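User: I would dearly like some help making sense of a protein record. This is the protein in question:
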Amino acid sequence: MLRDRTGNRRSCWGCCVIEPLIDIHLDRAWIDRALRDDVAEGLTSRPKELPPKWFYDDRGSELFDRITRLPDYYPTRREREILEREVHAIAERSGADTVVELGSGTSEKTRIVLDALAATGRLRRYVPFDSSEATLRNASAGLAAAYEGLEVHGVVGDFEHHLAHIPQGGCRLIMLLGGTIGNFTPPARKDFLATVAATMIPGDTFLLGFDLVKDHDRLIAAYDDPEGVTAAFNRNVLAVINRRLDADFDLGQFEHEARFDPDELWVEMWLRSRRPQRVTIKGLGMTVDFAQGERMRTEISAKFRPEAIGPELAGVGLVMEHLWTDSRGDYALTLSRMVEYGASSVGS
């Protein structure tokens, strides 16, 4: 682990700004090794598959930001609606003085929560956790400057390997927003939630966003926009592999597809080969053949029924204390605690 901190306080027109502390658990060698392993495994699987975390280079992050603003992509707006309406209840119920945000990104919605905790006089610390060091540093610096006396302790890490390195201390509100939980298959989701629960101590709470089951046409429209932004985002994973592993994917020969699986209750994103083709990945010393029409899965986004969320959380030792939905019933936020702490009183 690398640690970067000046430990200095600097004045900003009379206010006290604390320089962020950043712990780095991912270096270029670790990331390159993980990419190599994921691509080698995914392209030799049946069907072929690539993890969605490799979408997010600078270009991918820009495209996803555009997706969140598209008319048919509702999750970001619905989640923000709930946060803006219920944030004071969340702040009061959590009793938190520390916010831990998993997959923090640009921390755009974070300010809604930080403002509410600051209004209580309790806000002391913000802990962003993200795989992008540059994005985390930029967001950390901006929030440290915006909130007088706020301690920012960032962690650059991977969900699968580094959650145990999130700092303890204080009364923590742990957040995973954006419906990110839906990107895990059920077994992986259970493992992830169990790992988060294992990091919690009495007094900590967990705020988690779930995209809900709805009309299939609306779901597909959210993942296959007529402007082609989602298609470009999907194909960007091939551009990442081309650049990082010296591959020769022809992006124009892969068509974006979004499909809903009614049995699994998730949307799948696929790339379909337009013709028979052979791809060389020099960085792995391998070639991969694609048949015409062959599909490669790049993402799942699970959708949830409200009545199933509480039992799933209970399965990893968490009690769901409250569930809020937006005005259309498209999306849900839940607040949970450890089983050993408090009793369950689920509301809606």
About this structure: Residues 6-14, 341-348 have pLDDT under 50 and may be disordered. The CA atoms of residues 51 and 298 lie 6 Å apart.
